[in-house]
Specification:
Elements lengths: L1 H16 L4 H8 L3 H9 L1 H38 L4 E4 L5 E4 L4 H14 L17 H13 L25 H7 L1
Helix pairs in contact: 1-4, 2-3
């Protein structure tokens, strides 16, 4: 019986350490909140919780240290994706190129800048111009032919909306009215 109480109290201490409320602990063990509070005030339980907190702090410090150690290695790996490579051909000509796909290069460069605190500025350009449906279709065809359409997986929007409304008056007519 005493071993069961000890085991239960350790579980209560663990749940408290993990952030469970007194009411949640009481419900799980079919106790009253008052009983749970009494258990949590016990010096041995307080010591157990303190020990768990110390271990968690030690682990957090070890993780931070390990991340710090790996960050330089990670940066070196990412640097490979954006650093040009020189290669000499049989004729002695030096060719400089980046051996990775441009999407990989871009993602690596963007990630390095983001981690350094240089987030990209969000840019939104709004152009108001009256176009017909045929004009819009032609623009889309020309953009597709030129390879200027944005890939589907980017945040770039290359599209337009047709707003149906009153036709705009010519500027010449506006000048005549004044």
């Amino acid at each position: 019986m005493l071993d069961e109480i000890k085991a239960r109290n350790k579980q209560i201490a663990l749940m408290s350490f993990e952030g469970s409320t007194t009411a949640e602990i009481a419900m799980k063990f079919k106790l009253t909140s008052v009983s749970v509070n009494q258990i949590l005030r016990d010096p041995l339980i307080k010591s157990s919780i303190s020990s768990l907190q110390d271990k968690a702090q030690e682990n957090a410090i070890k993780v931070r240290k390990r991340i710090s150690e790996l960050s330089m290695k990670s940066l070196d790996v990412m640097e490979k994706f954006v650093t040009p490579v020189e290669e000499v051909d049989e004729e002695g000509n030096v060719k400089t190129f980046i051996p990775y796909d441009q999407k990989i290069q871009f993602a690596a460069a963007k990630d390095m800048l983001d981690r350094a605190g240089h987030k990209p500025q969000e840019t939104r350009i709004e152009i108001s111009h009256t176009l017909t449906t045929d004009d819009i279709a032609e623009l889309k065809q020309r953009a597709a032919a030129a390879g200027a359409l944005a890939p589907k997986d980017t945040d770039i929007v290359v599209d337009s909306n047709v707003v149906v409304g009153q036709p705009l008056e010519d500027e010449d007519e506006d000048e005549d009215d004044s």
